[in-house]
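Lab manual, section 2.4: Encoding a predicted structure.

Procedure: take the sequence of the chain (263 residues), apply the prediction step described in section 2.3, and record the output as structure tokens. A sample record is shown.
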Amino acid sequence: MLVTNSSPTAQSSSSLIKTHISIDRKTNGRLAAQYGAGLIREAIANKGAAHVIIATGASQFEMIEALLQESDIAWEKVTAFHLDEYVGVTINHPASFRLYLWKRFHSCLPVPLRAFHYVAGDGNPEQECIRLSELIQNVEVDVCFAGIGENSHLAFNDPPADFDTERPYLVVELDEACRRQQMGEGWFRSLDEVPRRAISMSIRQILKAKAIVITAPDERKALAVRNSLEGEVTPQIPASILQRHPHTQVFLDTASASLLQRN
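Recorded output:
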């Protein structure tokens, strides 16, 4: 594994991100999980409980699998929050992120979580945002697991992202690049099937997490990774805001890191 600080540029000289580059996806996911697991254990040791945010998508497969293999985590003391979900998608839809999290993570834990606050996208989306916002607004989140989209989105905050709203959850419009990614990853059979709206945790709420663990493998993410880590901090590159977070660690493989200027 190579470990570097993200390269300062004329536009992002104050970037605080640390980058980890692994030879393949499996190693990448394992190292991200190990780091995140350490943060969870530390929170439980210090406070008796931990609060985490769990992401979904193809980029998280290996990380979640490895996180489940981490020993000595008192999962019964962990409360988890769901990052985003499509509007209008039921829990039994193959692309449902609630189904993803239940099948790949929640149901696989050795003991039940203290709580898991899922995003329900098939009801009234505005009321669901209010419900979730009330649950998280006074919570200190210890670690947020997330990825970077092909269009540089963070959660479902597509460009131009709202960097200003204080609402913890909001209804967002999905741009075509995001929708094409969802189709390309096999979650939907056609672009027309991909929903046009989603409920997403907001940028400011994500940044409130004490630590952020980004897992972003694959060559198709290389341009977004470069723009997010080494470019200007701008709503047009939503994940670029991570450069302003004091405790963000980004886990890449050699393919997704291939366009970085210094790695």
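Check your result against the sample. Residues 1-13 have pLDDT under 50 and may be disordered.
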